[in-house]
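Appendix C reproduces, verbatim, an entry submitted by the partner laboratory led by Prof. M.T., so that reviewers can inspect both the input and the predicted structure.
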Amino acid sequence: MATEIEKVILRIRAADADLGEQHVLSETEHTRLAAMHEGARPAFVTARSMLRTGLADYMGLTPAAVPLLQKGAGRVFIDGFADDEPPFYSVSHTGGAEDGIAAVAVAETCAIGLDTQQIDPHVNWQRIAERRFPEEEWQLLQAMPETEGCMLFFTLWAIKESFVKMEDGALMPYLRGVEIDLTSGNFALKSPTPGGCTDATIYFHFIPECQLAVALVAAAPIEVVLDSQIKFASRRADPLTTVSSLDTFQP
């Protein structure tokens, strides 16, 4: 009997400038939020609240009760859960207060990695690709027209950084160490990743109105269900609230 492939929902939202979901954050997250630059707060709150909601659905908890922990600027983890124990999840957020975007995915059957990259034509992507990407990818990029080459560069970067997140690796070795096969018209691994993955699901989506490349990778076959709702709100005064330890969940 064939094993049913898991459907993983990829949620993408515009950052909420009102910080409307900050009430689900832990005391530690509120402390981190207060120390952030104002422009970074909407994407952080949106991404973290989306992650808490996705994990809460899986764990049967309220979003505020999910025991998320983070050491410094390192990886977010669930207190009491091993890295190879479900639920698996990944988060990405980009942009400022007016144009920030957050993306979250939660899976049960395998490790996943998610990354978003806004295409920036002012970046010297040719120089970066020449120095950091595998030779074959660089040769392909430099042979392409400027616009198409720029788009593919950021697409490949998002895919490679998704593998970094899936395997908890370091970025620089993955830029060259993750080789992508494009010959079939789809994205596939050409060789094992630095973390040892030999086969993976590679999903890509491009949002033209935001010039946003989105990549999601998984260590096993999955079906990605896209749930993208992006509508930017007008800029408002920073609505940060101060929450005492009595008002927040203590993991």
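Residues 1-110+220-237 form a domain with the Ribosomal Protein L22; Chain A fold (CATH 3.90.470.20). Additional entries are available on request from the coordinating office.
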